[in-house]
Amino acid sequence: MLCAVIAKKNFKDVIDLAKKIGNLKIVDAIEFRLDYLDIAEFKNLNEFGNNISKMDGIKNKTKIATCMLKQEGGNFSGSEDERIEILKHAAKFSDYLTIEVKSFQQEPDKMKDFLNTNLILSEHNFTECPNRKETEKIIDDMEKIKAKCKGKVIKKIAVKFNSFEDNYKILPFLTEEKNFGNVIMLGMGKYGKLSRVLNHYFGFLTYVCLEEKTAEGQLSVDEFGEILKILK
Questions:
Q1: What pLDDT shows up at residue 54?
Q2: Which of 21, 22, 44, 61 has a 20 to 30 A CA-CA distance from 210?
Q3: In the predicted structure, residue 9 carries a pLDDT above the cut 90
Q4: Is 89 a catalytic residue?
Q5: 2-231 has which fold?
Q6: d(CA 225, CA 29)
């Protein structure tokens, strides 16, 4: 599944880009990066959610929302309580919420409400790729949270690849039967582009951009379309 990421400062631009994505048959899902929005925009979040859920071309695509903290590679600089309220409103129009594992570990009581929603549990490492043992530990932590959830849970691990060999550390998890179609295992950086293609076939989804890239090594919709043509 291809997921186009939208990261804009205001809802008008978000909607304009969403309309363009809605016309692309190659794209199956949209991720709304709410952490990129100006703070003043959040007063219109409910109205935006109502509009986006009814728009032709978008209402039938999988909708994902996230509001990533700065320490997790995002732009949101508000308090955790503010972020939680934003995510609660986003849950009304989203099929999945992407929330960091650390949030559930550090603020378990505040995260209780999200155990009833479909989740993408995420873990990021912007400096290196963990070895197999370390990755297994991350997945085990995710499984402990998943055990408490009533909704569907996808496990996402995005790490920095510093060499092509890093592909061998994390990508084998994609093809394990228990993980097939239920994980996202991405390598950031130029060495991680192969992982972005493999996640389209073996993982839950892979992220692409229509305009601005939101991660190092992220491919555009056009680039991914050309790759798919070659593979076919």
A1: 87
A2: 44
A3: yes
A4: no
A5: TIM Barrel (3.20.20)
A6: 15
Distance, CA of 154 to CA of 96 (rounded, Å)? 9
pLDDT at 71 over 80: no
The two tokens of residue 220 are: 């555009």
Q: Give the pLDDT confidence of 74-88 residue by residue, as tens digits.
A: 889 888 899 999 999
CA distance 172 to 93: 34
Q: Which of 156, 160, 169, 193 is catalytic?
A: 156
Look up residue 48 and give its two tokens. Answer: 């935006």
Does 156 qualify as catalytic in the annotation? yes
pLDDT (0 to 100) of residue 186 = 94
Q: Who's near 63: CB < 8 A, 6+ residues apart?
A: 29, 30, 32, 52, 53, 93, 94, 95, 96
What is 61-85 written as a DSSP string? SEEEEE--BGGGT--B-S-HHHHHH
> pTM for the complete prediction?
0.93
Which residues make Cβ contacts (< 8 Å) with residue 34, sequence separation at least 6?
Answer: 42, 45, 65, 66, 67, 76, 86, 90
| Domain assignments of the chain as residue spans, ordered by start | 2-231
For residue 91 the two structure tokens come to 């849950």
8, 61, 124, 193: the catalytic one is: 124
